[in-house]
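Collaboration report, partner site 2.

Our partner group contributed sequences for two proteins of shared interest, and the home lab folded both. The records are reproduced in the order in which they were received, starting with the first partner submission.
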Amino acid sequence: MALIFLDTASLDEIREAVSWGILDGVTTNPTLMMRAGTADLKANTLKIVDMVPGPVSAEVISTDAAGMIAEAREILSWAENVYVKIPTTVEGLKAMKEISSWPNGRINATLIFSPLQAYLVAKAGASFASVFVGRMDDAGLDGMAVVRQTRAIFDNYGFTCKVLAASIRHPLHVVDALLAGADIITMPFGVLQRMIRSPFTDAGLDSFLRDWAKIAGQPGT
């Protein structure tokens, strides 16, 4: 079963999604933290951890391996379900290889745009490989093809790294990611809301309620 993550740092959005009973985790990044109006990465991440029992990803801001490793050591100490997001670069690979050797080396490799990048982060020991579908589609590429190719490569070679479909723009991306075999799909709250809504469901429910009101209003009922 594919896991559903929310791609946000908004505590209100996360609280609402948790109340639905179907949320498995949360992914954040510096941009999302900024939109949530906070510069305190640790404090906001821990608030999210208090609400979400599953994986919560927090991203490093360093661009060199040594800096990423130092940040990762701090981030991973915050809670047992916190994952550190490392960019898919040469320096990122160096950092992932080191971090993955730690007992708590939980890594979400981010900003993946090709199956070869996904293959390399899996070899480096990443826990999740985040394929940015929407950004590729925005550039006229087939982002979901990379999810399918990554799934096939990981299955071919028995990688335990999870395929994470990220940069989800709309519910059809979710459908395609499920059909492509993604292990995890992370999405904005707006996409999650649109997944459950249908005008046909609303119309059907209104019709049922009107019919019931007619029956309930009859004498002797």
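Second partner submission, folded after the first:
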Amino acid sequence: MEKEEIIGKIKKYVQEVCKNDYTGHDWWHIERVYNNAMLINKTEKANEFILTLIVLMHDLYDHKFYNGNIAEKLEETLKLLQIYEYMEKDDIQNIIYSCANLGFSSNIVKKKELSLEGKIAQDADRLDAIGAIGIARVFAYGGKKGKLIYDPNNNEPVDEKEYNEKGSKTSISHFYDKLLKIKNLMNTDIAKEIAVERHKFIENFLNEFFDEWNGTK
């Protein structure tokens, strides 16, 4: 089976799975992450085929939506799509390990060592979590999960265990529990450069938010 056919099969499957997602993990998120990854890879020169598959599959069984063994489920999916036997075992292990371990929550306690393709996909995914689009996704996810925009009486940061189990207390809390930390977690130089401006945008947004919330502006 040719690489283009493998990509096509996985792309079609992922589009079907996430077509009704309203948490900010929809197909357009995947497309943006792909575009980010290809931009980064112009410099990094990783295996584009493997990188593409990691990007396509990275949110299929995210811990926020799936409670089982992510690695086993990804392997099962590759077999279900009848592409497992057409791929090299090392490539499959790279894809599965990267998808299962590139998330923010997976790296809270101990940073997972990823392949170059995994690091690029991780950077590309994290870039989509900050800046203007990152802000929009926070409130899309928070609304879907029934979280308040902000509660001044309940805004203490959560510990690692609570974040992994329940997430942030409110949408604004999520900025402090996760988004403002992302700039310093990038792997590649180009992602670090892009993250600087997106980080500033978030800081400016929060300053404006609290000025309006407190009636001082």
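Feedback sent to the partner group on the second submission included the following. The chain has a mean pLDDT of 92. The chain has one domain: 3-213.
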